[in-house]
Amino acid sequence: LVLFCAIMLLTWGDQGAFASNRVKGSWPEVENGQEIEFVSGIMTDLDLSSFEDGVLGAMYTVGLIAMSLVFAVLSDYINEFKLVGVGMALWALGCLIVAIAPNYGVMAFARTLV
Q1: Which residue, 56, 51, 38, is CA-closest to 103?
Q2: Residue 35 contacts by C-beta under 8 Å, 6 or more apart in sequence?
Q3: Global pTM value
Q4: 30 phi and psi angles, rounded to 5 deg
Q5: Chain centre distance of CA 101
Q6: Helix count and strand count (H, E) for the chain
Q7: Phi, psi of 28 (to 5 degrees)
Q8: Which residues, in sequence order, are CB contacts of 28 under 8 Å at separation 6+?
Q9: Cα 81 to the chain's mean position, in Å?
């Protein structure tokens, strides 16, 4: 139970970090012809619309639902603690791919692993 709680804390911490404005970035605000604030992030670096940014956040839920079904079936045949290890490995791989994603498609796929 403690291991499960720690894993869930890590996962939700990751989701909170992904949702933060500092990670997403912001478009420059212009006042009197001068840029007053610009924060580089996922939206600005990959030139994403608000819809595409929302899809990235939703891909986590899609992956969670799909993998819950897969892992539920696998738990009948494989030790649950081994499955937790496999799940954590997929999460780490997903985080790595998100960090180095060169484009939107790769990042959207990787978000399903996170």
Answers
A1: 56
A2: 28, 29
A3: 0.68
A4: -115, 130
A5: 12
A6: 6, 2
A7: -65, 140
A8: 35, 36, 37, 38
A9: 23
